[in-house]
Amino acid sequence: MQHHLRRCGGGALAALRRFRHFPSTTPASYPVAWRRLSLPTRPYSTAGEHLPSALLHPPFLCSFSCEFARRSTIVAYGNFRKFPPVLEIVYATFELLREGKNSWNFSYSPFFASETSPGLPANLVAIMEQRMKLIEQKSAYLQDQINQPAASPEEYSRANKEFHKLEGTMEMIKELRSKQKEIEGLKSLVTNTREDKDMREMAAEELLEAVEEEKRLQHELFRSLLPKDEADERDCILEVRAGTGGEEASLFAMDIFKMYEKYAQKNGWKFDVIDVMESTMKGYKEASGTISGSGAYGKLKFESGIHRVQRVPVTEKSGRVHTSAVSVAVLPQADEVDVQLRNEDLRIDTYRSGGSGGQSVNTTDSAVRITHIPTGTVVAIQDERSQHMNKAKALKVLRARLYEMERHRLHMDRSKLRSEQIGSGDRSERIRTYNFPQGRVTDHRVGITHHSIADVMEGENLDVFIDALLLQEEMDAIASFAA
């Protein structure tokens, strides 16, 4: 399968159909329809080069503008089954823009798509080589520190901890260095065996395989060096609140909360309800829960924000479509080590929990409200009949909120780009619209529309949006690396 980047006008689809790989109709086996996306651009580097802010997951067709090249349109076409090939689009485009070419009409073979896969662009290889040397120097320095007899216990512990953090990266660097040494030897063998045809062909074949392995190792090492969010592997706390729309918003908040519960079950994660405040029609005014499992926060962190729904409420007699909204907050779960809560900073109030009446009324002061005085953060839990259990849940939620506040503050200080990634901090952004009459869900950040709302609400096709957002994060990480 070839990957084509071509300068096209308005008839981009027609032009691409001239290529033999492009289907005239959408095959039923493809999970996502072929589509053309006009994606926003953002600065890729200080040189003024631009790249798309997101790419659709496989298979996809996308078009985006490049300000650096006088708003020319690049159409990228491919049928990919894994994410590494998508990085090839980024690499190829970066090289294109860096060289300032104005005429593009060529084919490009992505990783995993042909017998020979492209390596990283020369500029990224050069940057990675610099990073590798720094890591090797730091590793050697730390090894010397560890072996110093005069080192204090604190110095030894600190050096040993940092050294072990670099072990995985150092193993990849050593493997890459070894492969590069093997390639040099094979090149020499090919050059020195010109008279022996069989030996030369055998060496040339081994050289080709070694070069392919070198490219694979470079890709693997490059991805490991990209900036990462250290909280991605944590468990998370999900908070859903009804916004504008009255009772209909509460009913939609319940639907959204249950959607994430089903998505958690689909991924093999544990979902525990922390607290639910019901509305008159048994919707959820507020609901919170914990999601425990490998990479839970990393996959769900971009779900934070305003989710808008357009549908006919059950209370609507005339059949008019109403618009309502709910807010979703996804917080990385914090350990006691991460957030120290001092007793003097907490005000803990107990009160009688509410209920629907009759036997549901709690006759003891089991509900707990904790106020963190320095920040004014308030958490109230009344879900359990035990005051002790409600207090434990409230402290868990409070730690998560304070941890997220501190993370947000640090990211604001360190990087404006990263603060935009956590723009969900103020919970004011409309990120997604669920249109029930038209049966579609649109994510406004990446411009993707999925036309099976029932599957999304069942937690089945949320990955359509989540995977695209994770790709966008990876592309931002590449931009940060190159800068």
What distinguishing features does this structure have?
flat, disordered N terminus, 5-stranded mixed beta sheet, Alpha-Beta Plaits, 12 helices, 483 residues, 3 domains, 8-stranded mixed beta sheet, alpha+beta
Report on this model:
- The protein folds into three domains: 3-118, no CATH class; 122-225; 236-470, Alpha-Beta Plaits.
- Helix 3 (122-147) crosses helix 5 (167-192).
- The chain contains twelve helices and 18 strands.
- It is of the alpha+beta class and 483 residues long.
- The protein has helices at 12-17, 84-99, 122-147, 153-165, 167-192, 197-225, 246-266, 296-300, 387-414, 416-421, 453-457, 463-482; strands at 3-7, 38-39, 41-43, 50-52, 60-66, 72-78, 105-108, 236-242, 270-278, 284-292, 305-311, 322-332, 346-351, 367-372, 377-381, 430-435, 440-443, 448-450.
- The two termini are 32 Å apart.
- The strands form four sheets. Strands 9-10-8-12-11-16-17-18 form an eight-stranded mixed β-sheet. The chain has a five-stranded mixed β-sheet with strand order 2-5-6-1-7, with helices on one face. A three-stranded antiparallel β-sheet has the order 13-14-15, with helices on one face.
- The chain is flat.
